[in-house]
Amino acid sequence: MKNTTLRFVLIVGLLAGVNWLASQFFFRLDLTEDKRYSISDATKALLGNLDKDVVVNVYLSGDLPAGFERLEAATRETLDEFKTYANGHLIVNYSDPSEATSEEQRQKQFLNLVDRGLTPTNIFDNEDGKRTEKIVFPGAIVQADTLSVPVQLLKGNRSATPEEQLNQSYEGVEFEIASAIRLLGNQEHKKVGLVVSHTKISPARLSDLIATIQQNYDVFLDMNNPESYAGLDALLILKPDSAFSEDEKFKLDQYIMGGGNALFFVDGARVDSVSLDGNYAQPLDLNLSDLFFKWGARVNTNLVKDLKSSAEILLNVGNLGDKPDIRPVPWRFFPLLNNFGKHTITRNVNSVYTRFLSSIDTVGGADNIKKTPLLMTSENTQILNAPVLVGYNEARNDPDPATYTGGPKLAGVLLEGSFTSLFANRILPGDPRAAKFKLTGSPAKVIICSDGDIIVNDYDYKRNAPLPLGYDRVTRQTFGNKDFVMHALDYMTDANGLINARSKQIDIRALDKIQIREDKKFWQALNLLLPIALIGVFGGLRYYLRGRKFA
């Protein structure tokens, strides 16, 4: 009796001790190979610093196909992990917007979510040989106080297979939701400058990019022509079409020497309309070539044609009776960039839409600068050196693949490191700029993209409203231009490294569909009979042992 009591006391004491240790030392172990249940340190810090309640309303719920069920499960797992580190400040709700008492109420719910910024998706499935269709909202709305941010969970490169795109969406759940939570936080906004004084593009054609940046950053235009760009966390040079003066170039140079971050969206050739037959492309001199060359890059004065991956334009290809026959045809002067470098900025980004793209070369002389390709064309390219006539009639003709052998062309490059000033040995002691002149710089980042139209949105003149950046009115698709720019800004300005959450990689372990079809009955029988057989063996063994014990 005494031994039993002592054993009971020891067990209770041991359990109490384990509980006390668990309350004092918190840890979690993720034993999966790809760390699918882990979140980044930056996300943990973000959640741990929440000082107000954040509500996440997830609308990806209900009866879903297998692929979307996997995305729903990933969202639940990620948010459960978020709640662990949020100190009670994260509230998560799940609902199926298709559930309603009437069709009218269902439509109202759908319209409300669309008005709040979520995009519906039509999914098709086969149930017992019958094709079914359902509208789902693969997204969430993150809310704090009176502010809310829509989050699209279904993202990724649309040129990938549906399974790959869903897997890319799975990988991006943490970053998308954490970015929305960060946006609603009270953290100090970084400062971003936009150089628009050298472009003739109307503000309406830049409005979507500017509005998106303003959600995350404090935006400053260079309207007052500042003496320097010091104090800015990033600087965007948006589609310039006139040359920079030496003084302006000096300010850019010294901004980078001070550890600044800059994104250049520039053209190598100017394309002007000259007739109904096409456009005339001529070299565009922005007086930045020597600056880029010093950094290790060169924007060429040419146009790149891409045979394999290009956007479409509407073109009159003939007549149908007395009416013109207008059809979408591939326009090889508008490459769709779907060849990305291995970097968190471009990981799982949709194709980037370009117009009259030029090529970039990396050059020597900047050995201490790390050069990372970001955007590239396909391997089926052809180069036209400006000046050259760009004729619309070319779109009507079948291209000759033998003339598209130029290989992949670089269209966007990331330069990182400590740069050396272009103005070394050019600033004399008596120059007023000599007092603050920096010969070598602090670590900085520069991105150069050889198409200014990457950041230019289209415009709906009937509604008198700008279209989303990257939207193509011919195919009615929204390409990845905005995501690319915002991810690049995140990478350059986010000292905490939340952008690194985009590096998560989840491997697809797909089943062999052919083997499943051939061995379907075997596996069904095995799943049905094996549990029964195991229970029978266990019962028989137990009966045998009991019989021996009490014989």
Explain what this protein looks like in three dimensions:
The chain is of the alpha+beta class. It contains eleven helices and 28 strands. An eight-stranded mixed beta sheet has the order 8-7-9-10-24-23-20-17. Helix 3 links the parallel strand 1 and strand 2. Helix 3 runs parallel beside helix 5. It is globular and about 105 Å long. It starts with a helix and ends with a helix. InterPro entries: ABC_transp_unknown, DUF7088, Motility-assoc_ABC-rel_GldG. This is Gliding motility-associated ABC transporter substrate-binding protein GldG. It comes from Dyadobacter chenwenxiniae.
Total number of β-strand segments? Answer: 28
Low-confidence stretches: none
Please report which band the strand proportion falls in: under 5%, 5-15%, 15-25%, 25-35%, 35-45% or over 45%.
Answer: 25-35%
Shape verdict: globular
Read across the widest sheet, the strand sequence of neighbours is 8-7-9-10-24-23-20-17
Mean pLDDT over the residues? 85
Helix and strand composition category: alpha+beta
First and last CA, distance: 30 Å
The number of helical segments is 11
Largest sheet report = 8 strands, mixed
Radius of gyration, CA atoms, in whole angstroms: 29 Å
Share in helix: 25-40%
Domain DUF7088: 33-143
Keywords: Membrane, Transmembrane, Transmembrane helix
Domain ABC-type uncharacterised transport system: 190-487
Protein name: Gliding motility-associated ABC transporter substrate-binding protein GldG
